[in-house]
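Data availability (excerpt). The following record was deposited with the supplementary files.
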Amino acid sequence: MSVIRLIHVKVATDQIAAAEKVWREDCAPLMKQAPGCVSEQLLKCREEPGEYISWSEWESEQAIETWRASDAHHEIQRHSRSLQGAKAVVKTYAIIP
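Predicted structure:
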């Protein structure tokens, strides 16, 4: 059964362009290559500038744990930490059949 991982991110309005660039050029390509990652998308809130959700679908919880221990995940953390004042909350969800 797939697992959906949502990372709710809030960045300052002066960091919006940088956040989207980091996701597009650094984060998304690494995640999309990760074993077990089915899909990765960045959702931009229409009502709240600077609010995003990184939406990823994984084959299993084990695939997420393997990803989290990988060098690529640590590289993404390094890139995302370059955004001043960004706040993130990670949650996982199961798809109800």
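Summary of structural features: The longest strand covers residues 3-10.
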